[in-house]
């Protein structure tokens, strides 16, 4: 076992939510340890958009500015490691890491994000974050007016079609198999000239992650430049669930308006708690969690 350390707060996950929490706690002169294993969910995307002052910067560029500013506060430290177990209770938790550290802490903030599960479509994972995209606010502007697909089926297809139509009128919904879109929604989509294509996918063709098109299982090919997709996810870190933190039906860590989980002394912030997925929102949630942690430490709770 390596050296044991004691902290007011440990932040597990040192990306946008975690660094933001660390900044507020560092400025509150709290002794904070950030533990991060270096796998933020957006690491494959070349440029991150829609975060004021950092629009178009790289994901690592934003994080490294954040990290260097946070580490200016002498009570904050950062280690590259993976938290793999937590024991204890409010005001005396023990965090164990893969490299063999044991860390004692009064409070824990999980800023651990989520992991996207890639579908079994050849070329999909290579294009993820580049031209296969999850969010129009993050990447829609870069593909405005271009030939675009949405990989979706069922009830949500109309809502998504209506949204993306704002960025391009060259739009097709790909259901990748038989459509389950209602007749009413089909008609509404047709009014916007959004077509529905049911041909099952075989693969995506691309150059270094930038799409040329889709090849269907019958051998047909269609050209597109961007494909929106909502794909399943898992919590990046299983510890909150293992500890017994309540989870939402959608698979997020349940938090209240103050980022508190259902376990006293444990907080969560960022993508692991919400479907509203953006750097700006992760930063805001981290900052909020930190101020609540500091309040509770001041109150001796
Ligand atoms: C492909 C893609 C592109 C995106 N583009 C944009 C964009 O342009 N603009 C925008 O605003 N948003 C974008 N987003 C959303 C944005 O990236 C997320 O909202 C944001 O990264 C969430 O920050 P987070 O700190 O909650 O989680 P993450 O950034 O995912 O970070 C979680 C951190 O926790 C660490 N971690 C997890 N478990 C452990 C553990 N057990 N021990 C130690 N460390 C651990 C991970 O390694 C990681 O560093 C994009 C998302 C994706 C997937």
Give the structure's gist in a few sentences:
The protein is α/β, with parallel strands linked by helices and 301 residues long. 25% of the residues lie in helices and 28% in strands. The strands form 4 sheets. Strands 1, 2, 3, 4, 5, 6 and 17 form a 7-stranded mixed β-sheet that branches. Strands 8-15-9-10-11 form a 5-stranded parallel β-sheet. Strands 12-13-14 form a 3-stranded antiparallel β-sheet, with no helix packed on it.
Would you give the CATH topology of the largest domain? Answer: FAD/NAD(P)-binding domain
Strand content: 25-35%
Distance between the termini: 30 Å
Q: Per CATH, which architecture of the largest domain?
A: 3-Layer(bba) Sandwich
Can you summarize the main beta sheet?
Answer: 7 strands, mixed
Key terms:
301 residues, alpha/beta, FAD/NAD(P)-binding domain, 2 domains, seven-stranded mixed beta sheet, 17 strands, 28% strand, binds flavin-adenine dinucleotide
């Amino acid at each position: 076992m390596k050296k044991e350390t004691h902290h007011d707060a440990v932040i597990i996950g040192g990306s946008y939510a975690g660094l933001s929490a660390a900044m507020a706690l560092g400025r509150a002169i709290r002794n904070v340890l950030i533990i991060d294993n270096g796998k933020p969910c957006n690491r494959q995307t070349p440029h991150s958009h829609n975060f004021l002052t950092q629009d178009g910067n790289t994901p690592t560029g934003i994080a490294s500015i954040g990290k260097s500013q946070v580490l200016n506060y002498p009570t904050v430290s950062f280690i590259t490691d993976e938290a793999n177990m937590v024991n204890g209770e409010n005001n005396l938790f023990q965090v164990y890491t893969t490299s063999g550290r044991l860390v004692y802490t009064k409070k824990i903030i999980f800023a651990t994000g989520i992991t996207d599960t890639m579908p079994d479509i050849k070329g999909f994972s290579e294009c993820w974050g580049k031209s296969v995209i999850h969010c129009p606010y993050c990447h829609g502007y870069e593909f405005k007016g271009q030939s675009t697909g949405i990989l979706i089926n069922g009830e949500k297809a109309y809502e998504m079609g209506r949204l993306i139509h704002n960025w391009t009128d060259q739009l097709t919904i790909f259901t990748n198999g038989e459509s389950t879109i209602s007749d009413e929604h089909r008609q509404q989509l047709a009014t916007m000239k959004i077509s529905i294509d049911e041909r099952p996918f075989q693969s995506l063709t691309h150059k270094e992650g930038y799409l040329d098109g889709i090849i269907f299982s019958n051998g047909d090919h269609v050209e597109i430049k961007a494909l929106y997709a909502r794909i399943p996810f898992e919590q990046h870190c299983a510890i909150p669930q293992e500890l017994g933190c309540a989870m939402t039906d959608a698979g997020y860590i349940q938090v209240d308006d103050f980022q508190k989980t259902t376990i006293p002394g444990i907080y969560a912030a960022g993508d692991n708690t919400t479907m509203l997925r953006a750097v700006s929102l992760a930063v805001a949630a981290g900052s909020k969690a930190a101020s609540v942690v500091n309040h509770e430490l001041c109150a001796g709770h």
